[in-house]
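User: Predict the complex with adenosine monophosphate.
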Amino acid sequence: MIDTAVEQMLLKDTRSYVIPADVVANVTASNTLEHALMVLSKVGYNRIPVLAADDHLQGMISLAAITDKLLQVPGAAVDQLSHYKVADAMSPVGHWVDDPKKLETILNYLVDDPFIPLIDDHQVFQGIITRRELLKRINYLAHNLHVNYDVTPKQLTAKTPLHSHS
Ligand code: AMP
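Assistant: Here is the predicted structure with adenosine monophosphate placed in the model:
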């Protein structure tokens, strides 16, 4: 459970920390890997979502997966990537959320994933929540907790865990 004070501080800024779908770079499964490589190089990200024509989230495509595919091609020439589709190299969506307020889940996922897709009840892609946006909130929390709350250390006992995870 996230501490209520921490949750309130993280959500204090009422502006959304979701990067909306219309500004998230994406490709479709039927795009060529050459096209996906161009998009990834242009935006400078390692991984972007793969969307269907109806905006359903289908998977993820990464620079590493494209490079891996390229290395399987004799001669490893980049133009060979035009013979392959994103569908040949995309990976399934590991984690997602359907509510941007599910902070505990989001924070846990962001430990391993640089971003988490947000989908609606019909699995339609709504946007992403990134480490950067969450870290901005955590930075605010780290600097302002004492402004909003009295924080005093508890007496440590032998039973008090010094390190605990989630
Ligand atoms: P950041 O926390 O800003 O470094 O973003 C983490 C990851 O989220 C990036 O490496 C990308 O994979 C993804 N990402 C962030 N912003 C966008 C965007 N506008 N379009 C597509 N992917 C993005």
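The longest strand covers residues 57-62.
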